[in-house]
Design goal:
The chain has 241 residues and is of the alpha/beta class. It contains 7 helices and 11 strands. The two termini are 32 Å apart.
C-alpha cells in the first residue's frame, strides 16, 4: 500500500479539495464531543494531515500516522505552515503499536478499504489494544455499493493546471483494482508521467460490525456520510464500553 502513494501522496489533499473537508472534520469533532472522550488520539491513515490538524486546532492532542512517507512529508509541511505542533508517525494499521494508550483512534476516508479481509479482525484487535478502557474507534469505509456500482468498471479523470490524471478501475471478486496515471507539470512547462496501482476491498457492514465485537468492542453504531444515508460511505463508531 505504501508504494501506491509515491506520487498521489504529494497531491492527495489538493486532488480531494471537493470533499468538503471542513464539514467532514466538524462532523468528526461533533461525534468525539458527544462521545465524551479524552483528549489524546491517533489519526490512522492521516494522509496529508487535514483531520490531524483540525483535531489539534480543536484542542485535542492527536498524532497522525500513515504508511506513506510521501504523505507524511506533506503533512509535516502543512502542519508547520499552520503553526500546529503534532507528531507524524510512519506506520501500518495492520501492525499498529503505540508507545502508550490513547483515548480515541480515527481512520478517515477509506483507510479500512485498504485492509484485506483476512487481516480485518487482527487489525481491529490491534486498535482495541491501543485504546484506554473507555476508548473509542471511529472510522469509515466506501460502501460495497460505491465500489461495485459507482467506481466499478468506470474511468475517471481530471485535467488540472499543475497535475492531470486518468483513473481506470477493474472489479475483482474482493474489490476494485485502481490504476492511475498522473501527468505532473515541471517548472519548464513539460510534464512527468507517473503510474500507481491501488486496491480497495469491498467490506460488508455486518462483517465489520461482527469483527469489531469479536475484537472486544462492547458497542458498535453505524450511519452514513455526515449522518446521512449509507449509499456511498458508512461510518462506524466502536466503543470499548
Amino acid at each position: 500500500m505504501a508504494e501506491s502513494y509515491k506520487t498521489l501522496g504529494r497531491w492527495f489533499e489538493y486532488l480531494n479539495a471537493d470533499c468538503d473537508y471542513d464539514s467532514w472534520s466538524q462532523y468528526l469533532l461533533s461525534k468525539l464531543k458527544s462521545a465524551g472522550v479524552g483528549s489524546s488520539g491517533i489519526d490512522i491513515g492521516c494522509g496529508n494531515g487535514y483531520f490531524t490538524r483540525a483535531l489539534n486546532r480543536a484542542g485535542y492532542s492527536v498524532s497522525g500516522m500513515d504508511i506513506s512517507p510521501e504523505m507524511l512529508t506533506v503533512a509535516r509541511q502543512k502542519a508547520a505552515k499552520e503553526g500546529i505542533r503534532c507528531e507524524f508517525l510512519l506506520g501500518d494499521i495492520t501492525k499498529l503499536k503505540l508507545c502508550g494508550k490513547v483515548n480515541f483512534a480515527v481512520a478517515v476516508n477509506d483507510c479500512i478499504n485498504y485492509v484485506p479481509p483476512s487481516k480485518l479482525g487482527h487489525t481491529f484487535r490491534k486498535v482495541y489494544s491501543c485504546l484506554t478502557g473507555d476508548g473509542v474507534f471511529f472510522f469509515d469505509i466506501s460502501s460495497e455499493n460505491k465500489l461495485r456500482n459507482i467506481i466499478g468498471e468506470n474511468l475517471f479523470g481530471e485535467d488540472g493546471e499543475d497535475i492531470s490524471y486518468l483513473w481506470f478501475n477493474r472489479q475483482t471478486p474482493e474489490g476494485v483494482r485502481m490504476e492511475l496515471t498522473f501527468f505532473v507539470k515541471r517548472q519548464d512547462g513539460a510534464y512527468d508521467r507517473f503510474e500507481e496501482t491501488h486496491f480497495q476491498y469491498a467490506h460488508g457492514e455486518e462483517t465489520i460490525v461482527g469483527l469489531l465485537k469479536e475484537a472486544g468492542f462492547a458497542r458498535v453504531e453505524t450511519e452514513g456520510h455526515l449522518g446521512g444515508d449509507k449509499t456511498e460511505r458508512i461510518n462506524f463508531f466502536a466503543y470499548k464500553r
